Amino acid sequence: MIRTMRYMLPVAALLLASASADASNSKTPPGDPCGKGNGNPCGGNEGNGGSQGNSGKPSYGKPDPITIDLPTFQGRSAYVLQIGSGNEATVHQTATHALSDIEQRGDDNIVSVTQQGGRAFVHAAQVGDENKVVVAQAGSGVNGALIHQLGARNQITLTQTAAGALYNGAVMTQAGIDNRMTLTQTGNDNRALLSQAGDSNAMTVSQTGSGNRLAWTQVGMNLPDLGIRQTGGQAISITQAGFGR
User: Where are the domains of the chain?
Assistant: First the structure.
């Protein structure tokens, strides 16, 4: 079934569009910034002060407000659109109110969704091959997630357990090859905006308690997992760019 996704956030589409579209590149950028004698930072060497060849050292700040517009729905519904071969979509719903909206374009993609508890929403879109999404939502409160994958062999794992009046929300975007992203939200009023563009990047996030905010962006290749843990009322923005070890 083809539906108009009015709740798809513009930021997610922009992140996909701005990602390295050539997922099959040679992993050597134009001008070979890691070439001998050019002074650029590579492999952990900070080199010059410019951004070219940045070795992936993270920068930190305060995030802008993170608001996720969840759709209005009642009861339980699941919608799946598949174009390609070997795609798999599995949805288990026992929540009082649950909506899963899945779109797969390509081959051998996998989406698995389990929705339990009070109110749960997932929109997952995959474009490419062999991408994987696993979502588990539970708890008496409200959970919501927008997930987009573009490329090949990317993996996202999301676990949300909501308790309280305010919702847990996540926007998770991957563009490239072999990226890994794991997010766990337990409590209420936790929000995460996670984006990976490039190849072989890794993120792991845990949010517990309430009122956490995280905006984390990786743009590059082999960027390390910082293992972010937030335990309540914490807000941070992280940017990693360049090439990890």
Answer: 78-243
Report the amino acid identity of residue 56.
G
Tell me if 150 sits within 8 A of 16, measured CB to CB.
yes
Residue with tokens 């847990």: 168
> What is the CA 2 to chain-centroid distance, rounded?
23
SS3 for 14? helix
Q: Is 21 left (phi over 0), alpha (psi -120 to 50) or beta?
A: alpha
pTM beyond 0.85, yes or no: no
Cα distance between residue 95 and residue 160, in whole Å: 13
Lowest mean pLDDT among 59-63, 85-89, 169-173: 59-63
Q: In this predicted structure, what is the pLDDT of residue 4?
A: 30
Structural tokens at position 222: 């082999």
